[in-house]
Predict the 3D structure of the following.
Amino acid sequence: MSQTGNTVAPQPAAFGGPSAPRVAASADKGGLSGWLGRTIPWIFVGLFLLFVLAFLVAPTAVLIVQTFIGDKGFTLSYFTGLWDYQYRVAFENSLILGVASAITGLIGGFLLAYASLQPGAPSILRTIVTSFSAVAANFAGVPLAFAFISTLGSLGFVTIMLKHLGINIYGMGFSLYSLTGMTITFAYFQIPLMLIIITPAIQGLRAQWREASDGLGATSWQYWRLVGLPILTPSLLGGFLLLFGSAFSAYATPYALTDGNIALVTIDISNVLSGNVMSDPQVGAALSTGMILIMAVVLVIYSLVSRYAARWRR
Amino acid sequence: MSVTASEVETPLPPARARKAYGARKTLSVGNWIIIALGAVFFITPLVMTGIFSLWEGGSKYGWSAYGMMLTAPGFWSSLFLSLRLGVETMILTAVLLVPAMIFVHLKAPKLKPLFEFISNLPFVIPAVALIAGLTTVYTGPAWLISTPNYLVIPYFFLCLPYTFRSLEVGLGTLDVRTLTEAGQSLGGGWGQIIFLVILPNLRTALVGAVLLIMTTVIGEFTFASVLLFHNFAVFINDTGQNAITEAAALSLFAFLLTWVFMLGVLITSRRGAATVGGAH
């Protein structure tokens, strides 16, 4: 298909009003080809919707039904079971990890984006930062976990080097296999993710606004507090929610890092699924429903925020 | 960041502020420190992984982990499986998503919000939750669920938010209706219009989607691990259980693969905007 790339270029001017009736006429023509022309589009749209219904909506619906329907009809016992100590801790840990790593990503990503987008920054630096971010934001899961185990694991090179310098970080209570260690590991994809999200918003800050505030005698701090940050807030909040979601629903990285030995909701669900723990399938369904509910709330806030953020991007 | 204590306390006179603004041709020390810290954070794990992969025990260093990696049983088969699944996910996307989105743009713009909603669903339904649902609903037939090809279904949804966005941007810049009317008035059928007119104009969006699918599927661990299929990420994880230096070598290899695919995305996307896949 690539050879024919430029054979037909869009020429809106040539196909204004006069062409409309002709097209309508050709679409109305009877016979097999006319019928096919009208039906084929709906077959493809229908196929896609059926696929979504069968493999995305139905499985989710079944989980929710399983959560609330027991042997004797409607029950809340599985859902309230999420408040049992074991599962409450898992939810707390997942939420803490989500928030902590989103804040890390937010601050790191914003500072790096801002620094590399300064007018004085060499363009090569900008290119390197953008392309590296694209790679690092997609570098996650098992390889990322091993990269950090090689670095900050109990036998990692940085850990050992620090030990030679007399600093025993594991003796001081640090562990890569804890929520803190995981937050550091997640920063490797969260910071670039935030950088990618926030770059267009920072580029949207017009130089004239800064000049105007400088001209009126505002300090740098006043400019950021009264102009810059209020404009960036919706984008920062939107980015925060996306980062939260990516950490909250992460499974591969924490699993590879801790070999599945950490109380997170995703790990708990997979333990139920693979039969590592003895529990009803309803427990897995209830945990999943809990996650979906939280993510749904996040998405609703996100769509409200992004509608608000769009006001400044014209 | 560029706010220093003195700047906060004493308001600058306008003249000096203007001069400072115009003279800002180089980065301030604060900004360089931020960039240096960022560089250290992002480069250190890669360097350490590199050193770790060369470690042969004690104080011996060499390339043996790489040799073992290439000859390890399962390396090539799992790599090929992941690549194959990537290609299959691409085909499924080409058959299911691309025509549906073109026709929605063309014939039923009213359905756009529904498609937008669907494209966000995989974000709301975490991968493990989707597996929990899929394994509950589908306990058969064997031809569907017992081969690794089954993974293509969740992978399609895993990539959906990103493939949808890429195609939506591509279709948004095209006047699909005018192109189609032009094609029809020249006597073209649907097949000709789609293959000769619309798809060639969507090249950039399609290449972007393809590379994102490959990046996402190559790194995918969750679905394969829970459903017990041995793809590349599962192979790396299994290797790490008893051969940590080999796993380090594999991790660097995976990083290079990601680099290759994302470089492709950056080169092909006209605006140079980076895109982000899933599977964390």
Q: What stands out?
A: Residues 31-68 of chain A form the longest helix (38 residues). Residues 137 and 189 of chain A are 4 Å apart (CA to CA).
